[in-house]
Amino acid sequence: MSDLSAVKALVFDVFGTVVDWRTSLVTDFMWWGKQRGIAADWTALVDGWRGMYMASMDDVRKHPERGYVMLDDLHRRSLEKLVDQFSIKGLTEADLDYLTKGWHRLNPWPDSVAGLRRLKTKFVIAPLSNGNVALLTNMAKFAGLPWDLIMSAELFEHYKPDPETYLGAARLLCLKPEQVMMVAAHNGDLAAAQKNGLRTAFVARPTEYGPLQKVDFEATGNWDIVAKDFGGIADKLGC
């Protein structure tokens, strides 16, 4: 492991790295659908929803003249398309709002909260997520995530992996990029962070996409830390 003595802050990818979005959403929507008497293939809807995630952000990048659009609004647009695609009938405005805000109610992986608490004893810890500020704040309250502050793509009006997100996080913390470590379960996120001078830590989440998982079963880059969970990162950083 390289010398990490200069690292002062850890920033975290959230969806898939800190929280189990897929299981959380499917379980939530199945329960909710039964209460509302609405039948749907909620697993397929959730997988389709996540499948539209990158393309929706790419569309924002391609059309800067339209201005930045936060993730809650992108999620809502994608959901409306999927509701039509899956022919889910009878949804009210309140129903669509409930489903969209399912992303605010995600459960952490079993090691996340305890690991974050350990890391917080030595480092500033914060999300660095494409989720908007309200989403990340509500999620932290729901899941008990002990962040020191909330950092979101919304603050920089750029989605990861744009350089403005990684460099913006360092700037807001009044740190040099090499004093900030990006923690993620996605090799691509870490590659972009490393390219912009941040240190990197990989933790595998091999069940993030359930049976649809195709990548990120293991570290594929030269990351500063590779660990099985957040507790392993804390061990390697002396927390």
Protein traits:
239 residues; alpha/beta; Rossmann fold; 2 domains; 11 helices
Write up what this structure looks like.
By secondary structure, the protein is an alpha/beta fold. It has 2 domains: 9-20 and 106-237, HAD superfamily/HAD-like (Rossmann fold, 3-Layer(aba) Sandwich); 22-104, Putative phosphatase, domain 2 (DNA polymerase, domain 1, Orthogonal Bundle), CATH 1.10.150.240. It is 46% helix and 10% strand. The protein contains 11 helices and 6 strands. It has helices at residues 21-36, 42-51, 53-62, 71-85, 93-100, 112-120, 133-143, 153-156, 163-172, 187-195, 230-236; strands spanning 9-12, 124-129, 151-152, 180-184, 199-203, 225-227. The protein has a 6-stranded parallel β-sheet, sandwiched between helices. Helix 4 crosses helix 5 and helix 6 runs parallel beside helix 11 (230-236). It is globular, with a radius of gyration of 18 Å. GO terms for molecular function: hydrolase activity, acting on acid halide bonds, in C-halide compounds. Keywords: Hydrolase. This is Haloacid dehalogenase type II.
Annotated CATH architecture of the largest domain: 3-Layer(aba) Sandwich
Largest sheet: 6 strands, parallel
Mean pLDDT across every amino acid position: 95
Radius of gyration: 18 Å
Order of helices and strands: EHHHHHHEHEHHEHEEH
The poorly predicted ranges are none
Discrete helix count: 11
Structural class call reads: alpha/beta
- CATH level-4 homologous superfamily of the largest domain: HAD superfamily/HAD-like
